[in-house]
Design brief:
- The chain is mostly helical.
- The protein has 15 helices and three strands.
- β2, α3 and β3 form a beta-alpha-beta unit.
- α6 packs parallel to α8.
- The chain is elongated.
- 30% of the residues are buried.
- The mean pLDDT is 87.
Length: 311
Amino acid sequence: MTGSEGFLADRAVRSAIAAVKKEFADVETTELDASTLDVGVFAELTGPSLFAAERVLVMRALENLPAEMAPRLIEYAGAAADDILLVLVHSGGQKGKGVLDKLRKASVTEVVATAPKAWELPQFVAGEIRLHGGNVDERAASALVDAVGHDLRALAGACAQLVSDSGGQAVTAELIGRYFGGRAEVTSFAVADAAIAGRTEPALEQLRWALDCGVAPVLMTSAMAGGLRGLAKFSSAPSGMREADLAREVGVPPWKLKSLRQQSRGWTPGGLATAIKAVAQADADVKGASGDAGYALERMVITVSRAHGRR
């Protein structure tokens, strides 16, 4: 299992263990951190079982494997025991990449746990809801992302809850509003949408409410940056492109193009440049360059909303 998305990696590990347990009644499962591995422990864990039981060995943080153990692990991968499923979990990054490359050459099966991009999260939500036997349309899936945020564990939990309580009905935006209304109405995306539309006072009201509700300042700058980035990509995209191609070019789901068309009518290249600079400054401020994150965000919202329509 490779990749930085812990939720997906954990799910893949659980799936692998479940597959073994489905086939064999008696399964012994052991988990350890790769940094603690030595020759004796590895020999004990991979040696013949006294009870002839099928075994699963989950080795986490493979990037921290001691250098002297790498050759032994790679040698074992080339001739693994039939009664052991060895699951290696690497959390991403360059550390330990040499071991990964050699394991790949040994034809070890690799599952990649890569976090979906922000515009792919509604697809993740729809997949989660289908997994639990429910159904949802794209707009409702996006509403759930806006309400809950980008954390996959939180989204997956919300999907399970909604399907369980929907009574077999489709998961709708109205249902999401009932469960998450307090969060759905005041999200970083709502603040960004209001500011980008040039509505200064509503944007400031929602910003203050969101901060009072505990929304992290960095999420505000991230949402604003994402909205302006999508708008800039849309505005600079070649004319005459098909909807699907344009959505891929901009990096948004197809339904989002309608709102981008509406937003783009009030923006000029000069205005976008001003707004993007303001967001970059605010992002630096909320990450430590300024002592007052609230003031930095208010200044960002005012600058962005006033840049709307500026030549």
